[in-house]
Structures are given as C-alpha cells and as structure tokens.
Amino acid sequence: MEQNRKSSRRRCPYLDSVDRTVLDFDLEKRCSVFGSNFNVYACLVCGKYYHGGGQRSYAYTHSIEAGHRVYINLETEKFYCLPDGYEVIDPSLDDIRHVLNPRFAREQVSQLDTNRQWSRALDGSCYLPGMVGLNTMAETDFVNVTIQSLMRVTPLRNFFLVPKNYQLCKSQLVHRFGELTRKIWHAGNFKGQVSPHEFLQAVMEASEKRFRISAKSDPVEFMSWLLNTLHGDLKSSQMGRSIIHQCFHVPLQFWILSIPRGTCIMHECLFFFFTLQGELEVVKERHNNENGDDGGAEVGKVIVETINVPFLMLGLDLPPPPLFEDIMENNMIPQVPLLNILQKFNGETVTEVVDPHFARMRYHVTRLPQYLILHMRRFSSNNFFVEKHPTLVNFPVRNLELRDYIPLREHNANERVRSRYDLIANIVHNGKPCEGSYKAFVQRKSDELW
C-alpha cells in the first residue's frame, strides 16, 4: 500500500500546458458553473474555477471536454492531474501556490521597509512590493485610498502579513484584509496590480451593504467603520485588545524603533492620520434653560461638564472662505497653515455648537496616539446642494511638532511624551463635491520618496 501511495504522487507530463498569465486568484473563489464555494479547483490552463475533483464533478467534466489536465485545489493548495486523479508534486509549481496564498517569514517582514528591489510581473510591468495599484471596481476608490494609506502603518501591516497572528479569529473581514495585505506586499505576483474583490465582498457582508460596489461612499466613514470593525472582531480572540487598539488607541511609553519620530497620515480633503492612542478632554459649557423646581440647577445658570474620551481621528474645521472676491485677487485660492486649525484642540479655543441647544465647547488633546489621523471637514451640505470648501491647507511633510501648539500633559514622571510626526500618506479629493474621485499619495519608506 505504501508503494502504491507514493506512485500516485508523481510528476505530470502536462505541466507545459499551464498558463500563468490567465490565473487570477483575486476573484471570488466560486465554481463558474454551479456557484458553490466548497471544494473549488482552479484550472491552471484556462484559469476558470470548478467544483469538485472526483468523477461527475464539474472539474472532472471540464478536464475531459476541454482537455485541460492540471488543477489546484484552492483550499488545500495541492495540485492534481485530472481526470487521472493523482496529485502532482513538482517544485516548478510553487510560485503558483505562493501567488494564491503569499507567505512571509518574520525575517522578511522586518526587512520590507528597506527593500528597494523592483519586481517584474508576467506581462512585463514592474512594481515595487507594497506600492502596487488596486483595481477600482465601480466607484470603489474610497476603499482603495483607505487601504493604500493603512498599508503605511508599519505595525498594522506587519501583524496582518503573518496569518498565525489572527488564525483563531473567525471573521471573514479580518482574513480577507490579511490576504489583501499579503498580496500587496508580495514580490512574486503575476500581475502588476491587485484586485480587492474578495475583500470588498467581505466588506459588503460585514457592513450589511452599507459599503458596496457601485455606490460612492465617504473614506472618512469607511475608515472609521473598518478600523472599529477589525478591532471588534480581533479583540474577542486576543483578550480584549487588538493591533488596531495598539496602533490607534493605546498610549505607549516607548516609541516603536521603526518609527523614531512618529507617523502621520494626512488627508487633505478628508482626514489626517496621526497616531499613538489619543485621549481628548472635552469641556462643555451651556446655560440651563429648564425649570429648576425639582431641585436641579437654576434656570439660566451655566453648567460645565468635563469628560475624557478616546478618539480615533480628529476633525479639523476650515475657516470660512471669503464671501466676496477681490478684483485683483479673483484667481487666488485661500490658504491656511495646519497648525492654525489645530489650535481647536489646545484646550482654550472655544467652538460654538448646537447639540441640541447652544453650547460652548473646548477640546484638549491630553494624550497623543502613535499614528494620528486628522480629518479635514471640507464638505458641507444644506437642503439644496453640497458645497466643497476651497481653502488649501499647508502642512509640513516632516517634523510636525505638536507640543508647540497643543499643551501636552505628562501623566507620570517616567513617561516620555512624544509629539513629533512625519507624513506617510495623504488622501485628496479631485473634482466636484458629488462627483470626482479620491487619490492617495503615500511614502515609500525605503528611500522616503513619494
């Protein structure tokens, strides 16, 4: 029996028929005939997916009718010759297995940010791992720019490059995000771009179609939803904490060595990303307008409420644009320094709100995150139309020192408060408010180029 088992695991004479240029493992792994996602085989000659492998299965029938002999089981990652049914063992097929499911050793992960070696796809196009383009599928640019920005967050990227870190998590969204991360950073892709199709399928299911293909959405809302959902799915398998919590919420006493000055992802039209964990002190002053007969505060008395809350991103308000254009300066676009609008969070600047009654708010950032996210509130709407704020925001690319503009508290004598950030990504919106598209500008860390 042992001799017969080994004889069935032999080299295949049909390997020359394998066509790597037609293989696309970014597509949803379902049978092209039956639609089942169970026990799916990919034909390595034409690239189509078929259910089964045994007799009377769609894969078996396709092998006889089309004469295509070599297949891979997309779940077990084993190669087979059909209709003969024996497993194919040949090292020349390993590259296909690694494109289907890229693998990274921890030593490789630690060296990604120093890599300057370009890779060449089968079509002759060249790409730098980590800097590959993502296919846009009917208004999904809001997803692509979010993913491209998150790929610059080193601890987050490193976590998802190693599936062992989240193997106990049952969330499809977590596993699809990890799979997409590994494909973006894989050096042996057959194409010079990656399609986030399977990730988008998981997003639509997890969000109950709040975010879906062919429907425009706001990257700010998607970023917030994605990070919170990933955190919620991961914390159940990691005793209440997650890599999202570590990057965007947990205050660190020591700086991560790979990010010596901090990291900042700035979004010009949407949001800026700066992180450590953020903590925000909110002071709300309002007049009591209710009847005080029940023993409550007197009518007209100022009520002051102070709360401390964590934050994922900071919303920055742009100054009102000029109402009238100067004859000599009608082509000039108003500009404002970033540090001017950051003063909203210095604990002294007053912001007036109606929530639901008039109140005066003061915000003070008391603790900075490792990666800071800043959101520019550039769009406003009323009953008639949506308006896009034209003011440009000037910001430094390196050495953004927040301590000079936001008083920071040292919570204990041994804590080193880090407040200097570098820009690693920026998202902008081009076009009209309800149209246009989003684009991401990201930094290549190996040589600090954009």
TrEMBL record:
It is found in: Nucleus. The keyword Zinc-finger applies. Residues 132-450 form the USP domain. InterPro entries: Papain-like_cys_pep_sf, Peptidase_C19_UCH, Ub_carboxyl-term_hydrolase, USP, USP39, Znf_RING/FYVE/PHD, Znf_UBP. Residues 10-107 form the UBP-type domain. Its main location: nucleus. Gene3D superfamilies: Cysteine proteinases, Zinc/RING finger domain, C3HC4 (zinc finger). One of its GO terms (molecular function) is cysteine-type deubiquitinase activity. One of its GO terms (biological process) is protein deubiquitination. GO terms for cellular component: spliceosomal complex. SMART domains: ZnF_UBP. The keyword rRNA-binding does not apply. SUPFAM superfamilies: Cysteine proteinases (SSF54001), RING/U-box (SSF57850). CDD domains: Peptidase_C19M. Keywords: Metal-binding, mRNA processing, mRNA splicing, Nucleus, Spliceosome, Zinc, Zinc-finger. Pfam families: UCH, zf-UBP. This is U4/U6.U5 tri-snRNP-associated protein 2.
